Amino acid sequence: MSNIANAFENGKAFVPFITCGDPDLDTTARCVVEMQKAGASLIELGIPFSDPTAEGPVIMEASLRALENGCTTDKVFDMVKRLRTELNVTVPMVFMTYANVVFSYGIERFCQKASEVGIDGIILPDVPYEEKDEFDGICKQYGIDLISLIAPTSDERISMVASSASGFIYIVSSLGVTGVRSNITTDIPSLCAAVKAVTDVPCAIGFGISTPEQASKMAQSADGVIVGSAIVKIVAQYGKDAPEYVGEYVKSMVDAIR
Amino acid sequence: MPDSKGRFGIHGGQYIPETLMNAVIELEEAYNHYKNDPGFNKELTELLNEYAGRPSNLYYAEKMTKDLGGAKIYLKREDLNHTGSHKINNVLGQALLAKKMGKTRLIAETGAGQHGVATATAAALFGMECVVFMGKVDTERQALNVYRMKLLGADVVPVTSGTATLKDAVSECMREWTTRIDDTHYCLGSVMGPHPFPTIVRDFQAVISRESKAQVMEKEGRLPDYVLACCGGGSNAIGSFYHYIEDKSVNLIGCEAAGRGIDTFETAATINTGKLGIFHGMKSYFCQDEYGQIAPVYSISAGLDYPGIGPEHANLHDTGRAQYVAITDDEAVNAFEYLSRMEGIIPAIESAHAVAHAIKLAPTLSKDKIMVVTISGRGDKDCAAIARYRGENINE
Known about the structure:
The structure holds 2 protein chains of 2 kinds. By secondary structure, chain A is α/β, with parallel strands linked by helices. Chain A has a domain at 8-147 and 218-249: Aldolase class I (TIM Barrel), CATH 3.20.20.70. Chain A has helices spanning 4-7, 25-37, 57-68, 73-85, 99-105, 107-117, 133-141, 158-163, 188-196, 212-219, 229-238, 242-257; strands spanning 13-19, 43-46, 93-96, 121-123, 145-146, 148-150, 169-172, 203-206, 224-227. In chain A, strands 5-4-3-2-1-9-8-7-6 form a 9-stranded parallel beta sheet. Chain A is globular, with a radius of gyration of 16 Å. The two termini of chain A are 26 Å apart. In chain B, strands 3-4-14-9-10-13 form a 6-stranded mixed beta sheet, sandwiched between helices. In chain B, α4 packs parallel to α5 (114-126), α4 (87-100) packs across α9 (197-205) and α10 (207-220) crosses α11. The longest helix of chain B is centred in the first third of the chain and has 17 residues, at 18-34. The relative contact order of chain B is 0.16. Classes of the chains: A alpha/beta, B alpha/beta. Chains A and B meet through α3 and α5 of A and β2, α1, α8 and β11 of B.
């Protein structure tokens, strides 16, 4: 078991996401430090992939910028190591990337490295329950949680997926890809209740959430709220000066859900 | 215990977001129900025969055979199908299936535009809404097909992300499907993507080899020695191979797009240059860098300009049952011109990759050998691009 459970022990968890290497890994590291300072409970680090099929334009473009700027899986590992050893980041951190990034690195080699540098979990949006065995066995050996996702379309799959989940459960708020939405139409309370009926693993909601009002509403049903695109947009806007603005934003979201 | 479905050896599977899992399960259940349903099959056969013009001819290319001086060459004329390519075989099957499933909207990716045109055609016929995603680069090099799709009533969405070619059109289609599932069927055009697509598309394209086997038996009284087809994702190739897979005397050869050469970065020859990976819903071979980032592939042929290959082909390669060769742009363009002058048949630039290998292989074989080459589509759509390649600008 990883340290992810700690993230959900002190009230509702705020989980910010950032694309590593946009505009560069030094800025990413400084953003992560600010996120922790602002009260983030768990931080999601996106390892960029060339063809992120579950992402909307904001994160997709950030991923491509990061790759163009020379970000690689090895450089992301180095940054995480620096966060843990030099920059005093102690909150749990999970990677969010795509199956091929892990597979091509070698699943075992990836998990070993991730565990060494201090990663607690991995989110792979293109690895559903049916394909998880290939990754999950090795993740477990290295004390890394492979995070399960549940979508508004999961229906009768919920108990199957949730009962084998570890770390936390990522509840996808809406159909479609990541990105800011003005309106989330899924019946979130029912979806969360269905998950909670079969597992004690904490659940966090993501996809489309950007405002403190939305976050506060989501936090009524779930144990945590995940925000990605809204943060990646701030980084795109302010570039190397982003850490300060990211910190302010994370603080406003943390305040809204506690 | 989780059960990974749709495997061909180690390849295949269902590497897709949870949001789409119930959609592919629903599709699999519907397909398993209808594939053996006599009513469904009767309706599909009628459509293929009365609407699409099947069976397609197996034509003895006598002049080409004599010119090359070796194996006897037959051309399987998928270019004569309605809409001008083999794509209609799969699309009529999937559109009929989608209709039975109560879907009212088809979405599709397209590279050269042939699959997009076929999907737009079926949507018009069945009175369904249709949206086709096409890389911006491809909308420019295949402008005629964009116009045809619009004429048929489809919306064409130019995709600007990534390399703005076929792989990006597939990604965008997957994104669109996760956004709108209830009324929408993703009419995937090749033997790729998550299970059950590689199986469904293969079954609908298998009509090519079912016919060619009967036709060659009738004309020659025996099986061919070689079957050649061009291979990007691999739908016409698997259709051309399928009914010969158990006939071990038949050599199966897929012709990949080498672009400017397999020793350059400007290539799309997946088996020849790729490595094992997971992308677009499947495990298979992909052109990628050391960190698993998908490579920006290149071929003169928009239809073969894809960094992956269907999982069943990957397995046919692993087992040695099929062989995959790489054909450069130059060789394909020469073959495009050769078949036009030699037989009066203008092949699609995709199909010209198979013709190019036939030109190399036939003279090395004795005259009692028989070769079947699939002409997957007609080349009218490519004339402007080939003229440009030869330094001539023509107005379409």
